Amino acid sequence: MDYIYILVGLSLVLGGLVGYYVRQLVANQQIRSTRKEAERLLTEATTRHRELLRDAREEARKVRNAAEAENKEHRLQLQRLENRLDQKEAAIERKLSAIGRREHELDDRAKELDHERDEIEALRGKEVEKLEELSGITTEEARRLLLETLETEVKDDAARRVRTWENQVREDADRSAHFILATAIQRCTADVVGETTVSTVALPSDEMKGRLIGREGRNIRALEQATGVDLIIDDTPEMVTISSFAPVRREVARIALNKLILDGRIHPARIEEVVEKAKAEVEATIKTEGENACFEAAVPGVHPELVKLIGQLKYRSSYGQNVLQHSLEVSYLSGMIADEIGSDGAMARKAGLLHDIGKAVDFEVEGSHASIGANLARQWDKSEEVAQAIGEHHGEVSTTSTLGFIVAAADAISGSRPGARRESLDQYLKRIRELEDIATGFEGVDKAYAIQAGREVRVLVKPEETDDLGAMRLARDISKRIEECLTYPGQIRVVVARQTTAVEYAK
């Protein structure tokens, strides 16, 4: 048994030694293979480095050669430019020398001309003195007499020619215009009296005034702040006046006030609620009215902002005429006139419908409603023809387009027919006075009378100061001055009367 144990121990020892040597052999083998791999990688890296270095040197050589070639080309170009500049400088110097010589020659020639001119002036002075001695009048007197004679002859001849041309043109134009306008007016039917904006609200009793004012005026302040209008509550029985330049705000205030009176609950919170509802109601009405107007005028594709402005014209009036109804009428008339003369009827209807669009915002923007409307059309409609016609329809700028003449004629027809417009007595008297003052402001006028409600001006001239041709010129000058200074619908007739009365007594 002991022998067996000894053999087993020896076997274990021998196995351990054998395993140790085997591991040493494997490790040495791995070390040798690793060294060989490292040497191989080092050799490859060295070779790759040499190749890269060789390629880099080659690339650098190519770049250097290219740069040298480019520099050489630039030097050649600079040399050519320098040569060209030298040639131009030489040419300029030659030209300057030639110009200098020419200036000297011109100076010498100018001196010669001045000397000759002095001699001519001296001879002319001697001749004028001889002529003055022979005629017995001075040069200034002769010039004045000649100019006066020529001026009189030219004025007389021009007046005769102008009178003949005006009569001929007027006959032809009147004939065509009467036919076109008569046809358009016959085909257009519109209400004679327009709707006016309501500015007063009736109250059920005077007790309601106190409730509208509220404690320490809080109700009326809340209503004015919410609507942007002024409420006038005075001694007028059972009546409240709404004052505002903005017709839409005035309409919102009127609707809100009526709702509050019917409801009976009047306090700041309720006022704000009712005013918001009234605004929504008015905005809906404005949109509906604008769309209906575009539909009635047969003008499709109008921008929504312009449709809104068209609807606002429902609450705008001018001389008692509702501006929306007036715009529709001008649209109808413009389309008819355009169709009669062979122009674009659709474009004319649009320009007629939008011609007073500036009146929807003229209380907020500076300028005349024609210029404001033209700017709005350029902004939203993008049509220069329509914008130009809108800006020209009141004659504030020179009318150059056919569409501008059409819209101006339709606007005059709509505004001048009986019942279309009304004005106060003060405005009427002021207009009559301005007509008479314009006529009497001319030289040679004795008296002037405005008749037929301002549609005609009768001018009486002094016969000893104004002849027949002068009377014709005076009528034309007065009409032009009226066109420049006054704004009026239709036309004003100017009649200049010259009368010579001879008186003798039989004894």
Task: Describe, in plain words, how this protein is organized in 3D.
- By secondary structure, the chain is mainly alpha-helical.
- A three-stranded antiparallel beta sheet has the order 1-3-2, covered by helices on one side. A three-stranded mixed beta sheet has the order 6-7-8, with helices on one face. A two-stranded antiparallel ribbon has the order 4-5.
- The longest helix is centred in the N-terminal third of the chain and has 134 residues, at 2-135.
- The model is unreliable at 189-198 (pLDDT under 50).
- The protein has helices at residues 2-135, 139-187, 207-213, 218-227, 247-263, 268-296, 304-312, 323-341, 345-354, 369-380, 384-392, 402-416, 425-440, 468-485, and strands at 200-202, 230-232, 239-243, 317-318, 321-322, 445-451, 456-461, 493-497.
- It is built from 14 helices and eight strands.
- The protein is flat, with a radius of gyration of 50 Å.
- Among the domains are: 195-292, Ribosomal Protein S8, Chain: A, domain 1 (2-Layer Sandwich); 297-422, Hypothetical protein af1432, CATH 1.10.3210; 425-497, GMP Synthetase, Chain A, domain 3 (2-Layer Sandwich).
- A hairpin with a 4-residue loop joins strand 6 and strand 7 (456-461).
- Helix 2 (139-187) packs across helix 8 (323-341), helix 2 (139-187) packs across helix 14 (468-485) and helix 6 crosses helix 7 (304-312).
